[in-house]
Amino acid sequence: MLHRRILHDDGRGVGEALDEQVCVNNNKTCEGLTVRGNYYISIDKLGAGARWRRTTGQEIYSPFLLAFTHENLESWKSSHWTKGTILDPNYSLPPNVALITLEELDGGVVLLRLAHLYEVSLYKYLSHITSDARSKLHKYMF
């Protein structure tokens, strides 16, 4: 439903008229509430909708948030461990795994949270258990 505005109760469940308004100047000027948003539509083969919904939803509503500092490089290097890397730079997480948290905690500990995006039987291939990400990270972090 995009938006429904009616002046009289239509008997469809809320028990009152749906006349949401935005008022200014001590309620002297009132206008109907304007709702804005984005709709994403995809036409897929039968059974592929869950994949599109999960993947696109992750990209739209939970994009990576990069954080930077104004600290100079030498000061940052002296206070952080910078030896080595975790993964091959060409590696990416499997399509059914999402990065939820990657955060440095006290004492050089790193909090890494991953999530499996698909419930059992939701999508033919991507609902299967994956151990790829953990096996690649295991020797470095676990």
From TrEMBL:
SUPFAM superfamilies: Galactose mutarotase-like. It comes from Vigna radiata var. radiata (Mung bean). One of its GO terms (biological process) is carbohydrate metabolic process. One of its GO terms (molecular function) is alpha-mannosidase activity. InterPro entries: Gal_mutarotase_sf_dom, Glycosyl_Hydrlase_38. This is Alpha-mannosidase-like.
